[in-house]
Design a protein that fits this description.
By secondary structure, this protein is mainly beta. The protein is built from two helices and 26 strands. The protein is about 10% helix and about 45% strand. The protein has a 17-stranded parallel beta sheet that branches. About 45% of the residues are buried.
């Protein structure tokens, strides 16, 4: 009798363990999930049962995992709070919003990669989106192969980290951003909080038809904030000021600009004010109202191989010219 009872208990334990193992996959997060224009957020976001939105897929994707677009669709605004990649290079990964952000990144230590997206802020409707991408907190944000347009109530990308962070843009087009009623809007902003270091690397980037500033690098938030920005093969055209650098006391900004075009900007090509220093090489600065503007200690140096002409005011680089060897 005792042995029979032991056997029954063993069988029950085995059955319970089996049930627990069987139910585990239903609650587990996948390292790769999928969204589809005809998906449903009640699905597990698998290849054969995709979700409908990025917001629906995010909680079903493990930290450090990846969300892929299975076919074209509008996948909704999303707030990212952990490391994640959203990759839609081979189809239409769309987000369309009005009066809000398309993507928010706000997760301590988050490493976020976005590629193949199309963010539309409905800038011609009168209820335009605020920021295409709003970065608040995280370790890094990389954006590739992406179009961002129509965010007339904010920035195409607002990179304002509250902890040390890096921004990487590659093959990104930002257009029709910024508001005529708010000077603190435009194409891209790099503006770290007090005591925070921000780094940004922009390659193969176009910022077009943005009000106020195509690229604003701003450490006026206070002492200890720093921003180091590198631009290569970047076009800033038909903006207010192509590149605007403004600093707070003890909050330096440095810029390296090479192989680029700054043209057709209605106010200034490049502005450096405060503790801001720019170094420019092999770049064309033409068709702007003023080519360069330096105030209150700002400096814009040349490597001697730039083309600066055809501006209403062909203001000169700071001296001396930087030796290239």
């Amino acid at each position: 009798m005792i042995q029979a009872m032991k056997n029954a208990v063993s069988v029950a334990v085995a059955m319970l363990a089996g049930a627990m193992l069987y139910s585990a996959p239903a609650s587990a997060q996948a390292t790769r999930t999928w969204v589809s224009g005809v998906g449903d957020d009640v699905n597990p976001c698998s290849r054969t049962a995709p979700c409908k939105t990025f917001g629906g897929a995010l909680p079903k994707t493990a930290g450090g995992g990846e969300i892929n677009c299975l076919d074209p669709g509008g996948f909704g605004a999303v707030t990212i709070t952990k490391s994640i990649s959203i990759i839609c290079d081979n189809t239409e990964g769309g987000i369309l919003v009005a009066a809000t952000y398309a993507i928010t990144v706000n997760g301590a230590g988050a490493v976020v990669q976005l590629s193949g997206l199309d963010l539309e802020g409905l800038g011609q409707t009168g209820i335009a989106g605020t920021n295409g991408i709003n970065f608040v907190n995280g370790a890094s944000l990389t954006v590739r192969n992406t179009k961002i347009r129509g965010f007339r109530n904010g920035y195409g990308i607002n990179f304002s980290p509250t902890a040390n962070a890096a921004l990487v843009l590659d093959n990104v087009i930002i257009s029709e951003s910024g508001s005529a009623s708010d000077p603190f809007t435009g194409g891209i902003q790099v503006s770290p909080a007090i005591g925070i270091a921000a780094q940004a690397t922009l390659t193969n980037v176009q910022v077009i038809n943005s009000l106020n500033a195509g690229l604003r690098i701003d450490t006026q938030s206070g002492t200890g904030a720093t921003a180091a920005v590198t631009l290569k093969n970047v076009t800033l055209t038909n903006d207010g000021t192509g590149i605007m650098m403004r600093t707070g006391t003890g909050a330096p900004v440095s810029l390296m600009l090479t192989d680029s075009i700054v043209s057709g900007n209605s106010v200034t090509g490049i502005l450096a004010k405060g503790e801001a220093t720019a170094r420019v090489g092999n770049t064309t600065i033409t068709g702007n109202n003023a080519a360069l503007s330096m105030g209150s200690g700002g400096a814009i140096y040349s490597y001697g191989d730039n083309r600066l002409d055809g501006n209403t005011t062909n203001s000169a680089f700071a001296l001396p010219v930087i030796a290239t060897h």
